[in-house]
Amino acid sequence: MAEILVLAEHDGEMVKKVTSELLTLARRFGEPAAVWIGPGSEAGRERLAEFGAAKVYVADGGDIQDYPVAPIAEVLAGLVARQSPAAVFLAATPEGKEVAGRLAVKAGSGVITDAVGLAAGDDGGLVAEQSIFGGAIIVQSRVRTGTPIIAVRPNSVAAEPAPAAAEIEPAGVEVTDAARAVKVTERVTAERGERPELTEAAIVVSGGRGVGNAENFALIEKLADSLGAAVGASRAATDAGWYPHQFQVGQTGKTVSPQLYLAVGISGAIQHRAGMQTAKTIMVINKDPEAPIFELADFGVVGDLFQVVPQLTGEIERRSGN
């Protein structure tokens, strides 16, 4: 089987969920080989093996992790030239898409970003599905030049385990001085709360314009905490400064696909729907019965969120014994 390179997203030890999704996708079309940049590959190897990585190419020499993006593209370009993979898969995160673009230039290949699905074409090539105009239109695209470089949106694929060897092998690619022109001079570790990460949470509770102000987001947070959920927000709420932008769910924010998505005070504009419409179960709380979000809802409550949310939170806490 042809090798497919998968750029591993990790925090130095823990492998992120999107990498498991990419490995699952790669197994459908070839033999997955993860590419690990920086230290910690031994700690992440077990997780990579669990989801089917046959090999793990590691580039951890010197201080490679202290240089953003450019060294990653060079390592991948070197592996593409040497291994001639069938494709390269990356996460369609801001960094992943920049790496994909740089790699495409270095490898002389075509690139597709924000893919939400992949299939084999009639000639055996890869056909990517993309959701555009906020999910209103689905298009099919393919790379016709060089090695397909495809950035896939997180939460587009269900990760499925399939154990493999995950044999660690040095990438063997020297990073040039040009790739080290820009250096990370300082890192600040954000305090991690008890809530799960937004893109990896099984339950997400999001607030929108109907929440009214930043102080009222305490209602959303309390409901989320009662469910052990992550907190999200619509673009209207983040643009208004009511909640940090890193928690925005939508076409220009993060894509989530949890088991349960609670949309509170969110009208359901196309921009927001594009980031959450693949959730397994969608529950809506909105006082406007004509809100477009109800078109997606499995369960809906037409009512004032300032009355419904406290009652819902209280009942959940009562049943859970908190």
Q: Total strand count, please?
A: 14
N-to-C SSE string, H for helix and E for strand: EHEHEHEHEEEEEEHEHEHEEH
The biggest beta sheet, please?
9 strands, mixed
Number of domains: 2
Portion of residues in helices? 25-40%
The SS-based structural class is: alpha/beta
Structure description:
The protein has 322 residues and is of the alpha/beta class. It has two domains: 3-180, 3-Layer(aba) Sandwich (Rossmann fold); 198-320, 3-Layer(aba) Sandwich (Rossmann fold). It contains eight helices and 14 strands. It has a nine-stranded mixed β-sheet with strand order 7-6-5-8-4-1-2-3-9, sandwiched between helices. α2 (41-50) links the parallel β2 (31-37) and β3 (55-59). It is globular, with a radius of gyration of 21 Å. The termini are far apart.
